[in-house]
Amino acid sequence: MSIKISVAIITFNEEKNIKRCIDSISKLADEIVVVDSLSSDNTCSIAKSLNATVIDQKFLGHIAQKQLAVDNCKNNWILSLDADEEISEELEKSIMNLIKNTFEYDAYSLNRVSFHLGVWIRHGGWYPDKKIRLFNKAKAYWGGYNPHDKVIVNGNIGHLQGDLLHYVFKDYSSSYRESRQKANKSPLLNVQRLRQILLEVHHTIVNKIGPRYLFEIFMTYLITYAE
Fold first, then answer.
1. Are residues 221 and 139 located together in one domain of the fold?
2. Nearest Cα to 12, choosing from 51, 61, 50, 49?
3. Which position among 38, 108, 113, 166 has the lowest Cβ density within 10 Å, counted as fewest Cβ atoms?
């Protein structure tokens, strides 16, 4: 008997992304649960038209919001996605193979590749951006610290072939809006977190992501924190 998978998604004003996300998992999802942070656009109506169960919930923070979506799924096996993500055909085949055969691990990691300002970024520490997104909720839960959440697994972890496609920003205005939203939601950074960020920036520069991307990153943060 094949194992059934629930797909858990959190959203906020994602009408431009949600259909692409849901379409990518339509062949493997037994259930789709969307927890929406009171969107003012057509996100919820689009999701419902694609047979998703939509739960309205004021934003609780990334960890609590994602865990709420997991808790409302009826199946034990969860594929957790953000609305600006979709699974590739290769990743879909990998998951379908598990469904038809067997799940040997308690959770599975996968490689995420980001589409940033018109380019798939596969260098500079951006790829492979390994994430655990497929897991048995009896063995795993959302943890970490906001907004940098991660899945905590009490068990063995395997790895799947195929990419999770992440559409970051299509232009500077999108980059600016999301950066401002994150800046407004996040608490003041402590010294340890600031040190970690600086080390990540240094790692990115050392790995030569290229002058174009460095300039784009610089402009994003300059615009975000100049106000």
1. no
2. 61
3. 38
pLDDT at position 118 = 81
Does the predicted TM-score (pTM) go above 0.85?
no
Contacts 24+ apart (CB under 8 A), 137-141: 137/70, 137/71, 137/73, 137/76, 137/77, 137/78, 138/76, 139/106, 139/107, 140/106, 140/107, 141/67, 141/70
Q: Which long-range contacts (CB under 8 A, 24 or more apart) does 53-58 make?
A: none
- Cβ-proximal residues to 200 (8 Å cutoff; 6+ apart), any chain: 125
Q: Are residues 126 and 60 located together in one domain of the fold? A: yes
User: Do 85 and 116 have their domain in common?
Assistant: yes
Residues 33 and 141 in one domain: yes
Q: Which residue has the tokens 């991307």?
A: 213
Let me know whether 63 and 163 are in one domain.
yes
* pLDDT value of position 172: 41
- List the domain range (segments joined by +) for residue 108: 5-169
- In tens, the pLDDT along 115-168 reads 987 888 888 778 989 999 999 999 999 999 998 999 999 999 999 999 999 998
**Cα dihedral across residues 222, 180, 173, 52: positive or negative:** positive
Which CATH number is 65's domain given?
3.90.550.10
User: What does the alpha-carbon distance between residue 176 and residue 220 come to, in Å, rounded to a whole number?
Assistant: 6
